[in-house]
């Protein structure tokens, strides 16, 4: 049997099943004397079927993979049944069998990767002329589902599109000649591993999971049996069925149909959206770029509205906006209209003209109004008009021109600035003619997201690497540092972007760093020299090379008796940043981001998480700003996930850097991992005051009191960078704080180890 399975695609899964059979053979000799009886029981027809499959060409094997998978699944089912009827089974035998079954999903994933690789090879080498009409249908469906993936590479996509261009015209011609079934890709028998129970339910549809050509899919059926679509009903809706023709990266495609799906005559098959609805995705990823996701949705809507004839979605709500595995917004909801043609949008999303009996032909503008309400929901996390308890109240408010109020300024980090709010307001205008088109909205949103040109020195022609591109001196969450040199200048550090997944957020952050850094000039700020494009690397940010390394490395080597001058220099650099107009927030202040210059002055560097306060109203503060810093240095309000960086969060980090410099160790060094640190901060815990070694390095009661003051729980209770520097330079920190804040703070300083509330 192993020889039969070996030439086939599903090698790992087949081998897994084969190993299960061997296990049973080894453990069941006392119960089944003749092992051939087992084959008769388990494999009544599988042997013959597998022999036939083994003769198929590579491409045909791919096309018939569902049939192969079905044979293997039948063997698995038979094995399970056999295990239940054996009189007694050795526990070790059971354990071996269960272990084999546990890894079968992993094997299937490996098979899926192998399948896609072999498909590419087969399409390049094998002729398509020998395929039957049915096999061409299957191949078209397989290529379409592959193309629906946002992770497909451009060269592979081009190959698949070229093949489709060759074989689809023939199918279309047959359709014109009177073959109506070709309007729908028939996936009956091709979708395997269908869930036993629904994975989701809606008002109109029920959703099941399955697998098609190695990829997960969703299967939609009508929620109520009275809404099921029969074969006769199918003929009636084919003329109006356009979903199967949609081809856009932000629109959920219809892959095909399954006939006789249980009690439902017809089921619809689409790609599986692993992240679910946009609200579910944002709940799990609060730092996601919401403006990008909103732009994705309007891009899909603009595509629908510019079709000929235009397609009106009609039921835009958050529940029909999905997010794929790469964080891209996908417009969906078409299955509901398939099963219920009279469905209308929910009251909270209905335009005022929808309550009029007079039809004014503005159906596209209905979508625009609903889109505005969806955008508001994405930004706030609440449904529109959430303060109304009845539909009548909402209808009355909408007809009278009322709209939801603008949320407060805490949502600026979710991209809700004046420009986006203006778009929302125009989209829900009382007069449909005053609402912009989807294409106009798309253009405005893309303008908001467009990366600015870099106005910095280009050093490409004068920068050289000391060693190869693979020689990395240091690495961080967003960039790698290599050593190079600039002609007529000397050694330099080259920071390159590390791109993970979708490049846009990282590129935006990288450009922001270059833009902010290029405008900073201060004795305690690492100078920015320019950018350079080096063969084999992404764009590099160029700065002077500092041989002394960062401040903690330097202090460990030099062993200075007094560390206060280093701390004072860091404070001066922070005062400079916060004193800019508008202020600049560092966002990631820690010892590793403070270098020591040749003159032994500390230099603040790594502005990858820096942000200009003015820009907080014009950009989404993504997880890069909220969660990518290290919790050991992060202010507690940032760990909540809703607060944004501020000068006060920098001051908190300053206190941690001071601790780092006195101890030459990380903050909370007695806590092993981030979870313990986060729990401690949630409980308003603070680092323990270090011992005699820190005192020998300059830590006094007054300095410790300043550090505790920087760690005040409320950001408003922390000193500014200017005040911290004044306190540091004064002989008595306590006296300075009393003069700055008044006697009310004296109670906090009476015990230098007390927590600051």
UniProtKB/TrEMBL annotation:
PROSITE patterns: PROTEIN_KINASE_DOM, PROTEIN_KINASE_TYR. One of its GO terms (molecular function) is protein serine/threonine kinase activity. Keywords: Kinase, Transferase. Residues 193-460, 467-738 form the Protein kinase domain. It comes from the Eukaryota. Coiled coil: none annotated. Gene3D superfamilies: Transferase(Phosphotransferase) domain 1. It holds the Pfam family PK_Tyr_Ser-Thr. The keyword Kinase applies. This is Kinase-like protein. It comes from Schizopora paradoxa.
């Amino acid at each position: 049997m192993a020889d039969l399975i070996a030439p086939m695609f599903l090698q790992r899964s087949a081998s897994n099943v084969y190993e299960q059979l061997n296990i049973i053979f080894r453990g069941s000799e006392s119960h089944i004397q003749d092992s051939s009886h087992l084959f008769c029981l388990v494999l009544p027809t599988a042997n013959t079927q597998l022999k036939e499959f083994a003769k198929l060409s590579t491409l045909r094997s791919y096309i018939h993979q569902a049939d192969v998978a079905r044979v293997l699944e039948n063997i698995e089912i038979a094995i399970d049944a056999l295990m239940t009827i054996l009189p007694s089974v050795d526990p070790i035998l059971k354990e071996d069998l269960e272990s084999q079954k546990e890894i079968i999903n992993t094997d299937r994933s490996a098979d899926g990767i192998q399948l896609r690789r072999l498909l590419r090879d087969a399409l390049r080498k094998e002729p398509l002329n020998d395929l039957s009409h049915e096999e061409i249908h299957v191949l078209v469906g397989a290529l379409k589902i592959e193309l629906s993936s946002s992770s497909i590479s451009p060269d592979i996509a081009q190959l698949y599109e070229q093949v489709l261009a060759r074989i689809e015209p023939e199918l279309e011609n047959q359709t014109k000649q009177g073959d109506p079934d070709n309007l729908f890709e028939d996936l009956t028998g091709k979708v395997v591993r269908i869930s036993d129970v629904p994975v989701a339910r809606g008002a109109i549809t029920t959703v099941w999971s399955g697998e098609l050509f190695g990829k997960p899919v969703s299967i939609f059926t009508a929620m109520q049996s009275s809404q099921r679509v029969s074969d006769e009903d199918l003929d009636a809706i084919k003329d109006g069925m356009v979903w199967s023709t949609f081809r856009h990266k932000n629109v959920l495609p219809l892959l095909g149909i399954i006939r006789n799906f249980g009690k439902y005559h017809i089921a619809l098959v689409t790609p599986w959206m692993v992240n679910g609805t946009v609200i579910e995705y944002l709940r799990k990823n609060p730092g996601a770029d919401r403006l990008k996701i909103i732009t994705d949705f309007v891009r899909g809507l603009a595509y629908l509205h510019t079709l000929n004839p235009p397609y009106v979605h009609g039921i835009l709500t958050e529940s029909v906006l999905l997010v794929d595995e790469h964080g891209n917004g996908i417009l969906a909801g078409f299955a509901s209209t398939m099963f219920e043609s009279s469905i209308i949008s929910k009251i909270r999303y209905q335009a005022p003209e929808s309550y009029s009996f007079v039809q004014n032909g503005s159906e596209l503008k209905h979508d625009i109004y609903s889109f505005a309400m969806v955008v508001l929901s994405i930004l706030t996390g609440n449904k529109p008009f959430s303060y109304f308890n009845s539909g009548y109240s909402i209808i009355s408010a909408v007809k009278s021109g009322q709209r939801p109020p603008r949320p407060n300024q805490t949502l600026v980090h979710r991209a809700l600035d004046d420009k986006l709010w203006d778009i929302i307001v125009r989209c829900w205008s009382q007069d449909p003619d005053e609402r912009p088109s989807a294409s106009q909205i798309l253009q405005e949103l893309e303008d908001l997201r467009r990366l600015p040109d870099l106005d910095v020195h280009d050093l490409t022609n004068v920068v050289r690497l000391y060693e190869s591109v693979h020689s990395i001196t240091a690495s961080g969450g967003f960039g790698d540092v290599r050593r190079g040199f600039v002609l007529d200048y000397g050694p330099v550090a080259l920071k390159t972007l590390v791109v993970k997944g979708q490049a846009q957020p990282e590129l935006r952050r990288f450009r922001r760093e270059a833009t902010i850094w290029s405008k900073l000039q201060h004795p305690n700020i690492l100078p920015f020299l320019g950018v350079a494009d080096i063969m084999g690397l992404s764009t590099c940010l160029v700065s002077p090379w500092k041989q002394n390394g960062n401040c903690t490395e330097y202090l460990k080597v030099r062993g200075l008796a007094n560390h206060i001058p280093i701390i004072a220099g860091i404070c001066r650099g922070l005062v400079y940043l916060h004193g800019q107009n508008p202020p600049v927030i560092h966002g990631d202040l820690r010892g590793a981001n403070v270098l020591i210059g040749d003159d032994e002055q500390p230099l603040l560097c790594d502005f990858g998480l820096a942000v200009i306060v003015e820009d907080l109203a014009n950009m989404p503060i993504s997880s890069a700003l909220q969660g990518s810093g290290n919790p050991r240095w992060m202010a507690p309000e940032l760990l909540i996930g809703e607060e944004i960086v501020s000068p006060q969060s920098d001051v908190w980090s300053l206190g941690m850097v001071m601790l780092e410099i006195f101890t030459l160790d990380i903050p909370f060094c007695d806590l092993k991992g981030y979870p313990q640190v986060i729990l401690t901060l949630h409980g308003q815990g603070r680092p323990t005051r270090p011992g005699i070694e820190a005192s020998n390095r300059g830590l006094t009661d007054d300095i410790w009191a300043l550090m505790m003051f920087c760690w005040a729980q409320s950001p408003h209770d922390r000193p500014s960078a200017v005040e911290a520097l004044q306190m540091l330079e004064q002989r008595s920190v306590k006296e300075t704080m009393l003069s700055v804040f008044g006697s009310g703070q004296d109670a906090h300083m009476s015990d230098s180890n007390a927590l600051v509330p």
